[in-house]
Amino acid sequence: MSDEFEIDTADLTRRMEGAIAALRVEFGSLRTGRASGTMLEPIQVEAYGQMTPINQLGTVNVPEPRMVTINVWDKGMVGKVEKAIRESGLGINPQLNGTIIMLPIPELNEQRRKELTKVAAQYSEQAKVAIRNLRRDGMDQIKKAKAKSLSEDDAKFWEEEVQETTDKFIKLVDQVLEAKQQEIMQV
């Protein structure tokens, strides 16, 4: 193997683990039973010229097991926060009370559970795309090194390393998705 070139597989692994962590945060938003403030974490709102998480625009509380409230600090942002929640795919119908947005969490029926499994599948697909993009970055590094002086055998070795890492994380995404779908469908 060439001493001149080495892919930082630890960095690649760390970045892929980041994609898994982001997936778990998104899955945390798919609550199956009780209300939780974390269910709003993936929702971003166009505020002050940039995308901002809801918890940076107001106070998120869970006063009852089936209710989440958001006390929006800026009156001008209430409509934008409400719109972002409606368009998020959570299936929650926000109710306004001044600057407070109330989110009654409905009982999950069979149809809603199936919808949530589809949302979970979309989240997992986004994680897979992120992992594949990281794979492509690794392969691009190998191509650049090949153009300079990397031998075919070394290039093949590093391509296999990157592919094995990618396969491992894609399989992990599938396992996390399967567990979340079972949790959602559990009555």
TrEMBL record:
The keyword Protein biosynthesis applies. CDD domains: RRF. Its main location: cytoplasm. Residues 25-185 form the Ribosome recycling factor domain. Keywords: Cytoplasm, Protein biosynthesis. Transmembrane segments: none annotated. InterPro entries: Ribosome_recyc_fac, Ribosome_recyc_fac_dom, RRF_sf. Signal peptide: none annotated. It is found in: Cytoplasm. Responsible for the release of ribosomes from messenger RNA at the termination of protein biosynthesis. May increase the efficiency of translation by recycling ribosomes from one round of translation to another. Belongs to the RRF family. This is Ribosome-recycling factor. It comes from Pseudogemmobacter lacusdianii. The gene is frr.
